[in-house]
Amino acid sequence: MGIFSKFISKIKGVSTADPLDWQELEAELLAADLGPSLTTAIIKDAKSIKGDDALASLTQILNSKLSSKSRTLSKAASTSALIVVGVNGTGKTTSVAKLAASLKGSGSSVILAAADTFRAAAVEQLQTWGARIGVEVIAGKDGAEPASVVFDAAVRANEQQV
């Protein structure tokens, strides 16, 4: 909860957060890719926090915004493809490796497509993770079109009935 620590101390203390603080919080939430609607709702609810238990109140607000939908992966009867997208620097590659390891551990066959061809070390990072967890990584040449890498991985997956 690093981005909230300053606000929690202000809410708990004698002073209150000023408009600049709320703008800073809004910028942090938007930078965390929460989107404008969710950010507005969180700030609106956070402004209503009163009392000494600001951290618990803020935690409750954030938890109330989480989806209650099932997080179970639904896999097709044959080949399935998962696409992971997100903001730069948020841990997508590491998350993909964790997901691949989990799927492999549950008995699924897994192939990874290194389609992030625009980030300099992305392909190498995914190849390193693939080697660590024993999963094949399909990669193109330097600067390859991402769609061509995904196509090659799909062809490979169909060949192996992954």
Q: Could you characterize the architecture of this molecule?
A:
This protein has 162 residues and is mainly α. The chain is elongated. It starts with a helix and ends with a helix. The protein is built from 7 helices and 2 strands; from the N terminus they run H-H-H-H-H-E-H-E-H. Strand 1, helix 6 (122-133) and strand 2 form a beta-alpha-beta unit. The chain folds into 2 domains: 2-65, Four Helix Bundle (Hemerythrin (Met), subunit A); 92-160. A two-stranded parallel ribbon has the order 1-2. The longest helix has 15 residues, at 146-160.
What does the largest sheet look like? Answer: 2 strands, parallel
Number of helices: 7
Number of strands: 2
Strand content: under 5%
Strand order of the largest sheet: 1-2
The count of domains is: 2
Computed structural class: mainly alpha
User: Could you give the order of the helices and strands?
Assistant: HHHHHEHEH
* pLDDT < 50 stretches: none
Distance between the ends: 39 Å
Percent of residues in helices comes to 40-55%
Describe this structure in a few short sentences.
By secondary structure, the chain is mainly alpha-helical.
Defining key terms:
162 residues; mainly alpha; Four Helix Bundle (Hemerythrin (Met), subunit A); two-stranded parallel ribbon; 7 helices; 2 strands; 53% helix
Q: Which helices and strands occur, and which strands form pairs?
A:
Elements: H1 5-12, H2 19-31, H3 36-47, H4 54-65, H5 92-105, E1 111-113, H6 122-133, E2 136-138, H7 146-160
Parallel strand pairs: 1-2
Helix pairs in contact: 2-3, 3-4, 5-6
